[in-house]
């Protein structure tokens, strides 16, 4: 019997500084109805420790990110046990839908959470590394950070944190608390 689909709603609005894009929801996130809801996923910890957020959010608080000009979506909206269960048709549809979302909402930067997510969006098997990419999606700069899923053994936590910090430093204005602590405006 096929699983019932539990879509995870986008957290998106016009004028975002950053739109984070995952590949697709896993079963835990789909059941919870929230992005990166699996406790084995370090996404929310990385968001806080990298400086994207001033506190560690719970997955259920994701809509509050809009006040900080951060949004979230996925390349593919359908939940699966893993990326191997996503079809070519899912990816093709997801590319079109994501391109329309970026055109409609106009984020300044799109940060793909995982090389696989960006490769799925591009639709090719080209070699991709983390960091800022030479391509743009519309006017948005494109970045790739490691996928913080508990299944991703390719990166140590410290390495993931370094990539999240790099993306944060290139996509966000200094926070008011950082300016006050630094004593100067940038």
Architecture overview:
This protein is α/β, with parallel strands linked by helices and 186 residues long. The chain has a single domain (18-182), classed as Uracil-DNA glycosylase-like domain (Uracil-DNA Glycosylase, subunit E). It is built from six helices and five strands; from the N terminus they run βααβαβαββαα. The chain has helices at residues 27-32, 43-49, 88-105, 115-122, 157-171, 176-182; strands at 18-22, 70-74, 109-113, 131-137, 140-145. A five-stranded mixed beta sheet has the order 2-1-3-5-4.
Layout of secondary structure:
Elements: E1 18-22, H1 27-32, H2 43-49, E2 70-74, H3 88-105, E3 109-113, H4 115-122, E4 131-137, E5 140-145, H5 157-171, H6 176-182
Parallel strand pairs: 1-2, 1-3, 3-5
Antiparallel strand pairs: 4-5
Give the structure's gist in a few sentences.
The protein has about 190 residues and is an alpha/beta fold. About 35% of the residues lie in helices and about 15% in strands.
- Report the sheet with the most strands, covering strand number, pairing sense and barrel closure: 5 strands, mixed
Q: What is the strand arrangement across the widest sheet?
A: 2-1-3-5-4
Structural class: alpha/beta
What percent strand? 15-25%
Q: CATH architecture, please?
A: 3-Layer(aba) Sandwich
